[in-house]
């Protein structure tokens, strides 16, 4: 089988067990953001030596792949695509709590950066927030339970990626830079 099908040459793509839509459709934009986040986390995983960072990242990648399939399905239940559960959201929260227990509480905003791994985790957090915004636009207030879980998952995931960035910087001995207003 060839990787190219030529079926998207006119600016359309097919949904999973659904119709063809334009490549600038809100659903395709949301899927693209989720895919970009997953690819960014592939970079993060390649840099992560500590299991405290690598293991959660790999689980997140699997869950994001399922989320992408869910979003690509006009009717996820009928298509049998993986649907995130409240257990996934609870796991993200537990992982945040575990990471935060290792960190000094913040007293100021910090700049994204630190180690290469930390900086990439901060970038993944920003991509996650964009994916969340575009999923909100796709659902347009029509939140069934799977959609609501997906939004909660991405919201918590952005927080987790922030905590993992801080944790990875701590593990690698990189200090955080507090934000301050520019000198006059």
UniProtKB/TrEMBL annotation:
Signal peptide: none annotated. This is Corrinoid adenosyltransferase. InterPro entries: CblAdoTrfase-like, CblAdoTrfase-like_sf, PduO-typ. One of its GO terms (molecular function) is ATP binding. The gene is yvqK. SUPFAM superfamilies: Cobalamin adenosyltransferase-like (SSF89028). NCBIfam families: PduO_Nterm (TIGR00636). Gene3D superfamilies: Cobalamin adenosyltransferase-like. It catalyses: 2 cob(II)alamin + reduced [electron-transfer flavoprotein] + 2 ATP = 2 adenosylcob(III)alamin + 2 triphosphate + oxidized [electron-transfer flavoprotein] + 3 H(+); 2 cob(II)yrinate a,c diamide + reduced [electron-transfer flavoprotein] + 2 ATP = 2 adenosylcob(III)yrinate a,c-diamide + 2 triphosphate + oxidized [electron-transfer flavoprotein] + 3 H(+). Residues 3-167 form the Cobalamin adenosyltransferase-like domain. Pfam families: Cob_adeno_trans. It comes from Blastopirellula retiformator.
């Amino acid at each position: 089988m060839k990787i190219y099908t030529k079926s998207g040459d006119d600016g359309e793509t097919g949904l999973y067990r659904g119709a063809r839509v334009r490549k600038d459709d809100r659903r395709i934009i949301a899927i693209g953001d989720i895919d970009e986040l997953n690819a960014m986390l592939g970079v993060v995983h390649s840099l992560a030596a500590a299991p405290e960072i690598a293991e959660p990242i790999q689980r997140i990648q699997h869950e994001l792949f399922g989320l992408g399939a869910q979003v690509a399905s006009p009717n996820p239940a009928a298509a049998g695509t993986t649907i995130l559960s409240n257990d996934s959201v609870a796991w993200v929260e537990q992982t945040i709590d575990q990471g935060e227990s290792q960190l000094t509480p913040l007293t100021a905003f910090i700049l994204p950066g630190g180690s290469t791994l930390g900086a990439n985790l901060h970038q993944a957090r920003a991509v996650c927030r964009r994916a969340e915004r575009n999923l909100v636009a796709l659902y347009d207030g029509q939140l069934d339970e799977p959609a609501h879980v997906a939004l909660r998952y991405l919201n918590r995931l952005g927080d987790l990626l922030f905590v993992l960035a801080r944790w990875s910087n701590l593990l690698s001995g990189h200090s955080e830079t507090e934000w301050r207003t520019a000198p006059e």
